[in-house]
Structures are given as structure tokens and as C-alpha cells.
Write a structure and sequence with these properties.
By secondary structure, the chain is α+β, with helices and mostly antiparallel strands. The protein is about 30% helix and about 20% strand. It has eleven helices and twelve strands. A hairpin with a 5-residue loop joins strand 6 and strand 7. Helix 3 crosses helix 4.
């Protein structure tokens, strides 16, 4: 949806960048962590009362559930005023109905609405105008807070600021390696901006999810588009996938190991069970061959001869490797490993340059001849007329 809270940077009067459905997209638009309402076309049973739980989206990826106790008719995309600890906040409805109940059971682990804050009303024009004014102050407030923290010598990084909808409170999200005493900072910020201050420490991954960005794969970061649970990633995941332990390539924008290292790990763990240990050496009459690398999906392994015998690296299928290991256990040592692998001749390319397509200047020569011929005809016509 094209609005000020959309990650595409559009507004209410412009077409959205995604589905181009002009704000009536049933999935909620191109916002962060948007959920497709696959129950929207299914009518609820007539005898069953509709679920009053509603999921409301705020800045970034922050979402909370609220109780629609007043049974206000709400749809996805409606701007509502909701209850907060002090005052009220403004958000956008992201999920309603039965899907909100399923999401609530998944995230909050309950479907009881008594402990939730309530929805006051649909936002009025004055509420929306005040909300827009608060959003416009966020960048200026963040830069001012960074300067104040630097003057006080605090080792912290303020990454984002979120104003409450009634412009009475601002939440500062920061990252730090250790504990930070920010009491003086809160006094300075409250006197500078005349609002109540709340400091909230987040991790490096939560910071990347709030700010967003483009990953090395060319797509939007998983943590800001669909990933909600952050599982621990270890370097063993890279070792199982035969990746080089290079921190610059394995680390994401948050500085931690990339979450996508866990996506295909189960497939590698299942496939590696068929391979022998990398510590096992293949014994030949030329010497003991050491393991170099493996390709799990192509079922191939590479071994190298000792430097005194031969410096070449031999590629072997997995079946042949198991055959050599079985012979070694019986005390049989082959002459060399090449006899277990039949090299496949690569098919030669029979392409023939029939029409001269390899020549880069094939069109330039033709154009020059045509231009000369046209000039000669032009001069001949001039002479005839004179």
C-alpha cells in the first residue's frame, strides 16, 4: 500500500510499488513482515461469533495484538487509535478475523483477549495529522540524541526513534556491547525535546530488521521481510556446506553469521552421512592420499597425492572412494587412484560460423559501402540537372 509507513516510500496519493492495486491490496501491501490473508475469501459460519482480536502494525516490524471490545467494523489498512501505557498510539490494522486468532496463538501462545489493550476508535483526521507530525520529527530527534550521547561519552549506538501517535513519548532503540548508564542522557533528551523518553536496547539482528536493507543475494533482508525467529548460527554450518571460513563473506549486515546458512543445512547433514570421514586416507603404492574437498550433491570427493610422489589432485566418485577404502581394509593397495575413475570426454562444440556472426564490424562495413554509393548517385543527379 502506498502510505508513509510503507517500506517502498510511497504516499497515499501515489500508486504502490508492489501489486499496483492502489491501496486495496488484500495482503496488506508491501510492508515489513506482511502476512497474506488466505482466509479473506472464506465466509465465517453464521452461528459463530467473529473473533475480536486484531493485529495492528506500527513503525518498522513492530506488531501488537489488541482487543476490539467495541466491535468496530475494521478492515486491513484501517488507521486506528489504540490504548497504550500512557495516552494513545496510532497504528494500521494488518490482520483481522480468524487469521488474527491463528497468529495470536502462534506468537502470544494464547487466544484470551482479556489481557490485551483495547482499540479506542478509527483514527480521526486530527489524530492522523498529529501522527504525521510526530513521524516527521523522528529523524531530527535521532540525530540530536546521537550528538548528546557522543558529548556524554556513552558507548552506544542509537539506531532508530519511534514517536507515539499522540506525540507524548519517544522510544529510542540502541545497541551497545555492555551496560550503559544513560540517566544523564534521558535528562538531556527530555529537556531538549519536551517529551517522555524510553530507552530500549536491542541486538544487532533486531537492528538490521528494523532498518532493513539489501543482502548479498540482491534481495531484501530476510529479517525485515519474513523472518521472525532468530536461530543461533554457528561456523559448523559453514563447514558442513564446504564453505570457506571467511568472516567477510559469511557475515551479514548485522555483523553476525548469515541466517541463510541454516536454510540448507539439514539437506547437507542428511547427505553427508553417506560419505566417509575426511580423516580417512586412501592408501596407494605411490603413498597415502589426503582428503581435499567434497561435493555432497554430485557425490564426488577430491584427494591429493603426497608431495614427494605427485602434486596432482584426483577427482573420484563416492562409490569408487568406498571401493578403495574397502580394498585398503583387506590389505590391497592400488597402483594409483586414476584407475578408478574413467574420465568423460567433454562434447566438442560443432558450431560453424556460417553467416559471419562472430565479426563485430560486420554491419559497419556494409553501412560504409551504402553511404558511398548514395553520395555518388547524388552527385550524378546534380551533374545531370546542371
Amino acid at each position: 500500500m502506498g502510505c508513509s509507513g510503507c517500506s517502498s516510500g510511497g504516499c497515499g496519493n501515489e500508486l504502490p510499488r508492489g501489486c499496483k492495486n492502489n491501496g486495496s491490496c488484500i495482503s496488506g501491501g508491501c510492508n515489513k513482515l506482511s502476512v497474506f490473508d488466505w482466509l479473506s475469501n472464506i465466509q465465517e459460519p453464521t452461528n459463530e461469533k467473529s473473533f475480536n482480536g486484531v493485529e495492528v502494525r506500527f513503525k518498522g516490524s513492530r506488531k501488537e495484538f489488541y482487543n476490539n471490545s467495541k466491535e468496530i467494523p475494521l478492515q486491513v489498512g484501517d488507521v486506528v487509535a489504540v490504548q497504550s501505557k500512557s495516552g494513545h498510539d496510532i497504528g494500521v490494522v494488518s490482520i483481522v478475523g480468524a487469521l488474527a486468532k491463528l497468529q495470536m496463538k502462534k506468537k502470544v501462545k494464547t487466544s484470551n483477549l482479556d489481557d490485551l489493550n483495547i482499540i479506542y476508535r478509527k483514527a480521526k483526521n486530527t489524530d492522523i495529522q498529529k501522527w504525521k507530525e510526530a513521524v516527521a520529527l523522528e529523524n531530527e530527534t535521532m540525530y540530536g540524541a546521537r550528538k548528546s550521547a557522543e558529548l556524554l561519552g556513552l558507548e552506544m549506538k542509537i539506531s532508530d526513534v519511534e514517536y507515539q501517535g499522540d506525540k507524548s513519548k519517544a522510544t529510542f532503540y540502541y545497541t551497545a556491547n555492555g551496560r550503559v548508564d544513560f540517566r544523564e542522557l534521558i535528562k538531556s533528551l527530555s529537556s531538549q525535546f519536551k517529551i517522555r523518553i524510553e530507552m530500549r536496547q536491542i541486538g544487532a539482528r533486531q537492528e538490521a530488521a528494523r532498518l532493513g536493507g539489501i543482502g548479498a543475494c540482491g534481495r531484501e533482508l530476510c529479517c525485515s521481510s519474513w523472518l521472525t525467529d532468530f536461530r543461533s548460527v554457528s561456523t559448523s554450518a559453514a563447514r558442513y556446506q564446504q564453505l570457506s571460513i571467511n568472516p567477510q563473506k559469511l557475515a551479514g549486515q548485522c555483523g553476525k553469521l548469515k541466517c541463510c546458512l541454516n536454510y540448507e543445512l539439514d539437506g547437507y547433514m542428511e547427505g553427508i552421512k553417506e560419505f566417509p570421514s575426511s580423516n580417512v586416507k586412501l592408501k596407494t603404492k605411490l603413498g597415502d592420499c589426503s582428503f581435499v574437498k567434497m561435493d555432497i550433491f554430485q557425490r564426488k570427493m577430491w584427494y591429493s597425492y603426497p608431495s614427494s610422489a605427485n602434486e596432482s589432485i584426483v577427482e573420484l566418485p563416492l562409490d569408487y572412494v568406498n571401493e578403495v577404502i574397502e580394498q585398503n581394509t583387506k590389505g590391497v593397495f592400488p597402483e594409483k587412484l586414476e584407475q578408478f575413475f574413467n574420465e568423460i570426454d567433454e562434447p566438442k562444440n560443432d558450431y560453424e560460423n556460417v553467416v559471419g556472426q562472430d565479426s563485430i564490424h560486420r554491419f559497419d562495413n556494409r553501412n560504409k559501402k551504402k553511404k558511398r554509393g548514395n553520395k555518388r548517385r547524388f552527385y550524378k543527379r546534380k551533374k545531370k540537372k546542371t
